[in-house]
Automatic annotation (TrEMBL):
Residues 701-874 form the HNH Cas9-type domain. It comes from Chryseobacterium soli. One of its GO terms (biological process) is defense response to virus. CRISPR (clustered regularly interspaced short palindromic repeat) is an adaptive immune system that provides protection against mobile genetic elements (viruses, transposable elements and conjugative plasmids). CRISPR clusters contain spacers, sequences complementary to antecedent mobile elements, and target invading nucleic acids. CRISPR clusters are transcribed and processed into CRISPR RNA (crRNA). In type II CRISPR systems correct processing of pre-crRNA requires a trans-encoded small RNA (tracrRNA), endogenous ribonuclease 3 (rnc) and this protein. Its EC number is 3.1.-.-. Monomer. Binds crRNA and tracrRNA. Mg(2+) 1 binds at residues 9, 707, 711. Mg(2+) 2 binds at residues 9, 711, 956. Pfam families: HNH_4, RuvC_III. The active site is at residues 9, 791. One of its GO terms (molecular function) is RNA binding. The keyword Hydrolase applies. This is CRISPR-associated endonuclease Cas9.
Length: 1408
């Protein structure tokens, strides 16, 4: 029986694939059908962001810019409606100017605005004021969009007034309140707190002048409570004050010190506490909102409007910046009211109705934020697929219940029970593994459900277990984050009500009110909160949540409604944005306003789970009964919680279930933006397209075997950590490689050499003595055969080749250790040796020299070797891995995952490791780009200079081939290696049989014997190389110009659908250029080129007139006038009648050329060398910068850094320094605007034409169109993406095939990025062979290139990269092999354009 197997190696930007035919009964009949690679190029930013865990699309920046443009359009629309209503009510006349006119009128409108609050202004002036207010309408709170960095809104004008009137500091006032037994302390403005800080500082400075320095004052600014202590610890010689008494007494004492600090001398300890307290208050009121609150306070105290406040600043300093001075929306509304009230006394047209229309409908209208509910995912269990008709097409759509928010109390409890059912404890002595019983789970649940995350140690203490006896399979347990936040708030409310906290809570002060820090049990905390809430009058039922309530009772329970109110409330129109919320919390649950303020500051995450509330409610009873969420493995006979709830989880399908599935004829691609992560969507769609074409080309796929790149098997956080760690390791390895070159004379250190050196360094704290014999390793013998890299747990027993399973030991000890673990070897050697070994490794672990993983492996006995190393690696936990398998199950009955570790092992055993190098060696050898070196063992090795297998796209196909031949037997064998020698192991017989079937003992060159996997087919390596040689790499071409989007707009109760064309990239680059005319001169020999236009450029007026006269004599024909017998040397042009003066053979041409410029700051990045300085437009400045760079010997970093300290003087006597300069920019530009005066009228040039300004570079080129003109010559026309979009918008085809058709031009073909072209060579002419015949693939593969980049042919050239190359160094040796570059049209005559499908098969020759 044979099966068609498709092997997939899915990476972030490429997919390797291999189709094989596998004979299950007779593996000798296995054969390779086809190999290939599909490249889905991500931009550099896309790939980096994905690897760093940021799901950002290439168009994210454009989306932000589009948002800004929309805001601008909304402002313009408001302005349009405002002008319209002002004109209709005769407030604004057609002839009225809306801008400042005349001398010193820059701030005229601001002056009128300030005046209008108290004095009469004309109606036309009032119109200008309303337009100015319309520009900036103030900050309006949005509770959902709030973040911690913004700080908090302060609403305490009454308090601020009291402080001002009674000349009190916030500390003195607070002390008064506490002495009067007031329960609540108010919030204070940041400015009042800063004023208190300064007052105390200046008062205490008289007692401690030596320590109260200006530098220390600056250091303390902006510090939080802990940082304040750290800053003062050394200058004040602090040791700390131990306060005694109740929390309230401690609080009163602190505020007494704070109150006294402005009146009498305090010691350093008390002053430190005072500054801590004030800085803590300032820190909490700081940020964006704190600054707004302070401005609002100033308006109140000075009885000013926003306009008066701003104009006062302008009067004091005309250069003051108003841009970032933000006020509350309410302040603008107050100003509007005051202006309207004042002016309505003088103008009868200003009616109440008109005021409401202008205020509420036009200027201050605020649209609600667009709902994002459509982006919430559908529950994986509660969904179904339906067919809908959209734009005349039948589409399948998944509908169902939306997933629940992660902050939901149901989700939080569900998550905890999921975790609890996976907890296990292993007895350190007996090695037995015990799951936790239900009673213990309940105890743990009660703690984490209120306290949040708790550590493994805390769990052991809770259960009464000793950490010395039991080893848990977890570090900590993530608890109920929602309850933790709520209980923190509850404790603060109780403390503010001046209830004394129980002593058993063991809290130090009111700043330690965190439920996670309380020492006693969660049940006591809950009882305490319930008791105090009852006394305060708060509904205590909000503390009890029952996830198992039936029907509507679930949603009606107070705890759920309370969470939902806090989570979903989006804000109101009040100044705080929360007044309605405060009302609801008091009405429904009994919270006072002061309590509600604390609750409103709780920030819930906006993340969602993957199950709906309904699904979780059905599953959670079974989780609480102790069942796992899903089956732990396919062999597991115990029903899962999902199965008991009536759901079929993806891990729960049996072979029979899978076999019964009805397969699809074709997989469906994901519609654009259907997945939240754009990179994941791209990867999966490329996989779907590739699999579809494989099925169409080769028929049914019986099984898919897939390996996902490690980036795809990790979540965003893990990807970010992995990328960071890889970056650090790469730098470290580069450093070690340099050391090995210099100190050990190893010209090209291998990976093993670097590992050997790292293992040597690991022993530094042990005097470089190895762990087995405790004898020092001699540095000079490190890279000899005296020492081996040993696997702590032998690879023959446990498949682990990681660094944590390796040590450096003498060869004799390694041979003696043989197949034992390190622990068993030393135990059998000598008990004393073992004891010494254990002490050494503990010391190394304690000092951080070895990792925990290595420490545990060094202590592991042979009997303790577990299984499942591979199984754990194969668990498809991340979304993309699960989704990929789910998709593939749609077209085949069997999908098997494998891992990189297995692929590496099989590739090595099947002798495929150096295949890529061998395929490339001959080519690079001919180019002189190889070298022969001695490795650390003294063996000669030929290598390609600066090359790795990753330079060749085919390595993905080679990996896919390995994956395709990876059977379940290979995976099972590596997973249970230890079972081979252990006859008592339940898998012993199975693994022994598999070993005889798929492995064999081979003899190595040195005579040693090694067990390796048998090759899947005879001459596997030869056959693999043959197929690899025939691969044509398929690249995703960038063809699309626009995407059709259907925008739906609600209008008067109906929905209007409008089709919009969205560009697939940026139309132009962000930089805005100016323009300048520059004089250009050139000496030119008089020739047939001297037509009327050229002669008019002649600089010498006499020469110009004489040349024009000659041209007229020959009927404007320049060739007759200046060539042949009339060439100047034969027929001179005289300038006088005596014929003594004549025009020289060469004349100077002069003309003005438009150059597009930009201002750039002078720094090392912008001016790296003299070439950059040549772009400076001003000749004098250019000379100064050149001279400066010369003085520093061309070192731009030294020349152009720190210009404040070391300025570049243009005129030192006048103090004029060069900081920014104008440089020449792009030549290929488009104008964004036309020049206007300050009144908005267009300025015309002398010819009456509009004058373009603000130029932008039109960005990347979309394609080059190649034509043949009437004379048979080839002509090219490069079309920018900007122009391509313009053509589509005008309803034209992207490629203009009729360009110059009237002149006899004929369109031939286009060139776009990533399109494929065949180039002729000595033994290959693409026009003479059958390109569809697969017998010619090897020859075609040698001569196939893809378009890399192109521009103006004579300047930028047309560049092509060989289809196999992943990246290319532009070395002259590689030209014509790895890359091609052309600067003339001749090459176009002999090339042939081809189109490849996803499989790399040529499906079209010529233009398509």
């Amino acid at each position: 029986m044979t099966k068609n197997i498709l092997g997939l190696d899915v990476g972030v930007s490429s997919i390797g694939w291999a189709l094989i035919n596998e004979d299950i009964e007779n593996p000798k009949n296995n054969k390779i059908i086809k190999l290939g690679v599909r490249v889905n190029p991500l931009t550099v930013d896309e790939q980096i962001n994905f690897e760093k865990g940021k799901p950002i699309t290439t168009n994210a920046g454009r989306t932000l810019a589009r948002g800004a443009r929309r805001n601008l359009q909304r402002f313009k629309l408001r302005r349009f409606h405002l002008i319209d209503i002002l004109q209709k009510n005769n407030i604004l006349k057609q002839a009225d100017l809306l801008a400042e006119v005349g001398k010193n009128s820059t701030f005229q409108t601001q002056e009128i605005r300030a005046k209008s609050a108290k004095q009469k202004v004309e109606l036309s002036e009032l119109a200008r004021i309303f337009l100015l207010i319309n520009k900036k309408r103030g900050y309006k709170s949005s509770r959902k969009a709030k973040n911690e960095d913004e700080g908090q809104i302060i609403d305490g004008m009454f308090i601020a007034k009291k402080l001002y009137d009674e000349k009190l500091t916030p500390g003195e006032y607070s002390y008064q309140l506490l002495k009067e037994s007031k329960k609540q302390l108010p919030d204070f403005y940041r400015s009042d707190l800063q004023s208190e800080f300064d007052k105390i500082w200046n008062f205490q400075k008289q007692f401690y002048p030596e320590n109260f320095s200006d530098n220390l004052y600056k250091e303390l600014q902006g510090k939080n409570k802990n940082a304040t202590w750290k800053t003062l610890e050394i200058p004040f010689s602090l040791v700390g004050i131990k306060q005694t008494g109740t929390l309230q007494e401690k609080k009163l004492e602190k505020y007494s010190w704070r109150s006294d600090a402005v009146k009498k001398q305090l010691d350093y300890e008390k002053l430190a506490v005072v500054f801590q307290e004030i800085n803590s208050n300032i820190y909490n009121s700081s940020g964006y909102l704190g600054a707004i609150s302070d401005r609002s306070k100033e308006l109140y105290f000075n009885n000013q409007t926003v306009g008066e406040y701003l104009y006062n600043q302008i009067k004091e300093n005309p250069h003051t910046k108003l841009k970032n001075q933000v006020f509350y929306r309410q302040d603008y509304l107050d100003e509007f009211e005051k202006i309207w009230e004042t002016q309505s006394k003088y103008h009868t047209t200003l009616t109440k109705e008109l005021k409401e229309e202008i205020r509420d409908i036009i200027i201050f209208y605020q649209r609600k934020l667009k709902s994002q509910k459509g982006l919430i995912s559908i529950c994986e269990f509660e969904n179904r697929e339906i067919e809908i008709k959209e734009n005349g097409k039948i589409k399948k759509k998944t509908v169902g219940l939306k997933v629940a928010p992660k902050s939901s109390p149901l989700f939080q409890e569900f998550k905890i029970w999921q975790i609890l059912n996976n907890l296990q404890f292993q007895n350190i002595e007996s090695k037995e593994i015990f799951p936790i019983d239900l009673d213990f789970k309940e105890s743990i649940f009660n703690e984490v459900n209120i306290k949040g995350r708790i550590s493994a140690k805390a769990v052991l203490d809770l259960l009464g277990y000793s950490g010395k006896e039991w080893n848990p399979n977890f570090k900590d347990i993530e608890g109920n984050n929602t309850n933790e936040n709520l209980y923190n708030a509850y404790l603060k409310i109780i403390a503010d009500e001046e209830f004394e906290l129980p002593k058993e809570f063991k809290l130090n002060g009111d700043d330690d009110l965190y439920v996670s820090k309380i020492a006693c049990s969660a049940s006591k905390i809950k009882d305490f909160v319930k008791e105090k809430f009852s006394e305060i009058g708060i509904n205590t039922s909000i503390l009890d949540f029952n996830p198992e309530l039936e029907g509507k009772d679930f949603e009606k329970q107070a705890s759920y409604q309370f969470w939902h109110l806090l989570y979903s409330y989006e804000g109101d129109d009040s100044q705080s944005g929360n007044e309605k919320l405060y009302e609801l919390l008091e009405k429904k649950f009994g919270f006072k306003k002061e309590h509600s303020k604390i609750l409103s500051n709780i920030g819930f995450p906006l993340d969602y789970g993957n199950l709906s509330t309904k699904a979780m409610r059905k599953i959670i009873p079974h989780l609480k009964a102790g069942l796992s969420f899903a089956k732990k493995s396919k062999e597991d006979n115990i029903l899962s919680a999902t199965a008991m709830a009536g759901y079929n989880h993806s891990n729960s399908y049996t072979k029979e279930d899978l076999a019964k599935r009805v397969l699809k004829e074709k997989l469906e691609v994901f519609p654009k933006n259907s997945l939240r992560n754009p990179v994941v969507e791209k990867i999966l769609n490329q996989m779907i397209n590739l699999v579809n074409e494989a099925v169409e080309e080769y028929g049914t796929i019986d099984e898919v075997r897939i390996e996902l790149a490690r980036e795809l098997k990790k979540n965003a956080e893990e990807r970010a950590n992995m990328t960071s760690e890889i970056g650090k390791a790469t730098l470290l390895h580069q450093k070690y490689a340099e050391i090995l070159k210099k100190e050990f004379d190893i010209p090209v250190p291998s990976r093993n050499d670097i590992i050997r050196y790292k293992l040597y360094l690991e022993l530094a704290n042990n005097g470089y003595k190895d762990l087995y014999t405790d004898v020092q390793i001699k540095r000079e013998e490190l890279f000899t055969n005296k020492y081996d890299i040993d696997h702590i747990i032998p690879q023959s027993r446990f498949f682990d080749d990681s660094f944590s399973n390796k040590v450096l030991v003498p060869r004799g000890a390694n041979l003696k250790k043989a197949n034992q673990t390190a622990f068993d070897y030393l135990e059998n050697e000598d008990k004393q040796k073992l004891e010494k070994f254990l002490n050494i490794i503990k010391n190394l672990y304690d000092k951080g020299e070895i990792t925990k993983a290595k420490y545990e492996k060094l202590q592991k006995k042979g009997s303790d070797i577990g299984e499942g190393f591979i199984e754990r690696d194969l668990r498809d936990t991340q979304y993309i891995a699960k989704k990929a398998k789910e998709i593939l199950f749609g077209i085949t009955h069997s999908v098997i995952s494998t891992s990189g570790k297995i692929t590496d092992k099989l590739r090595e055993d099947w002798n495929l490791v150096n295949t890529m190098k061998e395929l490339n060696l001959d080519k690079y050898k001919k180019l002189g780009l190889t070298e022969t070196l001695l490795n650390s063992k003294g063996e000669e090795k030929e290598r390609i200079i600066d090359w790795s297998k990753r330079n060749d796209h085919r390595h993905h196909a080679m990996d896919a081939l390995t994956v395709a031949f990876t059977t379940h037997n290979h995976i099972q064998y590596l997973n249970y290696l230890n079972a081979r020698k252990d006859e008592d192991h339940k898998q012993h017989k199975v693994i022994s049989n598999i070993e005889n079937l798929i492995t064999k003992v081979f003899e190595k060159k040195n005579g040693a014997k090694q067990r390796r996997f048998i090759e899947p087919i005879n001459n596997f390596r030869v056959d693999a190389k043959k197929h690899l040689d025939e691969i044509l790499i398929s690249h995703k071409a960038k063809n699309k110009v626009v995407t059709k989007n259907i925008n739906k707009i609600k209008k008067k109760g109906s929905v209007v659908a409008k089709t919009e064309l969205t560009p697939r990239g940026q139309l132009h680059k962000e930089t805005i250029y100016g323009s300048s005319k520059f004089l250009k001169t050139k000496d030119e020999k008089i020739s047939g080129k001297f037509d009327l236009e050229t002669i008019n450029k002649v600089q010498n007026e006499k020469y110009k007139n004489a040349l024009l006269q000659r041209l007229r004599e020959f009927g404007e024909d320049s060739k007759k006038a200046f060539t042949g017998k009339n060439v100047i040397s034969k027929n001179p042009i005289y300038l006088d009648e005596e014929k003594t003066l004549q025009i020289p053979e060469s004349v100077t041409l002069a003309w003005y050329e438009m150059i597009y410029t930009i201002r750039k700051p002078v720094n090392p990045d912008n001016f790296k060398d003299y070439k950059n300085i040549d772009k400076v437009t001003d000749e004098k400045i250019r000379a100064v910068l050149t001279d400066r760079l010369r003085k520093f010997n061309g070192n731009s970093k030294e020349a152009f850094s720190d210009l404040e300290k070391n300025p570049i003087w243009l005129n030192k006597s006048k103090g004029i320094a060069i900081k920014t300069v104008t440089i020449t920019g792009m030549s290929n530009v488009e104008a964004l605007h036309y020049k206007k005066d300050h009144l908005g009228k267009e300025i015309l040039d002398k010819k009456g034409d509009r004058m373009p300004v603000d130029f932008v570079s039109t960005g990347n080129n979309h394609h080059a169109a190649i034509y043949e003109d009437a004379k048979g010559n080839l002509q090219e026309r490069v079309v920018s993406f900007y122009e391509a979009v313009e053509r589509v918008n005008q309803g034209l085809s992207v490629v203009n095939k009729d360009y110059n058709a009237g002149l006899g031009w004929k369109f031939l073909f286009t060139m776009k990025q990533n399109e494929m072209f065949l180039f002729p060579s000595e033994d290959f002419n693409p026009k003479e062979i059958d390109l569809y015949d697969e017998k010619n693939l090897k020859l075609i593969a040698k001569n196939l290139f893809r378009v890399q980049k192109f521009g103006e042919l004579s300047k930028s050239g047309f560049w092509f990269r060989h289809h196999l190359e992943t990246s290319v160094d532009v070395k002259k040796e590689l030209r014509n092999y790895s890359y091609l570059d052309f600067y003339s049209k001749d090459f176009m005559k002999t090339i042939v354009k081809v189109r490849l499908n996803h499989l790399g098969k040529i499906v079209q020759v010529g233009e398509y």
